[in-house]
Amino acid sequence: MILRKMNVGIITCWYKNISMANYSYNLIRSLEKHSFIKVKVVSSRCFCEKERYCESKNFLQDDCCQLINFPPFVYLHPQRRISWVFYTVIQVLTHFMRGMIYLSKCKSCDVIHYQLSAHSLGILPLIPMILIPTPNKKIITSHTIDKTAGLRFLKAIYNKADKVLVHSEEMRKDLISIGVHPSKIGIIPHGAKIPVSHSKRRDKITFFGAPIKQKGVFVLFEALKILKDKGEKIKVYFYGIYSASEKEAAYQRAKELDVDGCIVWGGRLSENDFDVKMQESMFTFAIYTEPVSGSSILTRAMANATPIIATNIGGLPEYSQKFAVLIPPNNPEELARAILMLKNDHDLRMIMSEIAREEALKISWDVIAEKTLKVYLDALKN
Predict the structure, then answer these.
(1) What is the pTM of this model?
(2) Backbone angles phi, psi at 141, to 5 degrees
């Protein structure tokens, strides 16, 4: 029986409509349905503030966040007058300071839950948090594995945590392969926020996310070129949070391939509009070119009963093999075939749609919160 509140500090990205922040936001909302849990959100200025929110004053999820505001050296790009050594030292010291402030902000918490991704939420701020001994239980959700940090180093950091959570069996195997003890690792999938049905006509092909190489955009352009050369008229609607430079690079590549007329740029969406556009989709894409542990685009497609084409790498097949068309990465010919097949097969899309929604209910945020809460409680018993 719980006799007092459990104080949880979640250190996370908190920028509006970024997938890492949405993950934490939805997890927190479901955790706080338990009256004995109190969550403190701690975040920091980071890469996206300059690159994707440079003209916005309203870029945080809400006002319940303790934001670390010291100078974001992560933005600096070395000039000729600044040596790489000096720049690297500044970066490391800044991130170490950041990690120590994270720890200080959460000193009254029973559990500290670090959402490990990149930049201000990367491996460097995690080092002092893990290595400085405190009575808090320390949980890491590893959204990515930064192998550039050195495998022995990663092994030591992960093994010092009370628990490391990942989103797929594939990622669990990756951690074991670098020497993380299996008892330290738990699998909790990406969650799915189940939206209302907007009863939209599904008549568009869509892509959600930044139009960058790692998300398969250039491969998609090559597939569109193949289809165009065959006389197929395909339009893809792009939605997401991306910088002007990212859009320009994608546009130039599409223009080189003569498929710029196949693209409609839709820009960023509110959370509600995201679901509306997803439900207007005949199908969408999670065509990563590099392994990922899971994908918020994939789980949102599931929740909106939207068929999807996904690459068969990383943790994606674990989520989508029952309802997605799976293709090899970096293969425009296979992607073109998949696009044409789904576009022309209404019955297949309906079957995929029904299965996707059923699978999403199994990983609703309330389900994910219960799994996460069990990790907290188990850690506090030890």
Answers:
(1) 0.84
(2) -100, 115
